[in-house]
Amino acid sequence: MEKIPARLTVKPTWLLTQLAVHAHRLSSGAFATLGGRGYHYRILAALDEFGPASQADLGRHCTMDRSDVVAAINELADRGFVERTPDPADRRRNIVSLTAAGGAQLRSIERELDTVQERMLEPLPDADRAVLIDLLTRLLVHHRQG
Q: What is the mean pLDDT of the chain?
């Protein structure tokens, strides 16, 4: 193992950053296997959970910039995973819906990501994984509120 200054290894910010880099590499590989990206997963998951939505609502649900939402929806629509229809209440706005092919793609991504989660958390028993998820969730909620 490489030498790392001890003062770094006790800093949660350093540890989280190092793990985030590793998690991103694993996740990106899983998405690439399916010809997708993390943004695609976010949008497909939001549509599956919340139902049809405007592009603006998807951006809020997925914590994505509006331009990234538009680009990702274009890519997903080109592959038949989502469809856009005019909003009957406001013709200037589109409503995005998940297609059957998009649902199948979401399930494929989920299977790949389950493998990523397993690889990432491999050294931890189930009880420790639950504690880690709880702690990370509490930190994220706290910092999003402030």
A: 95
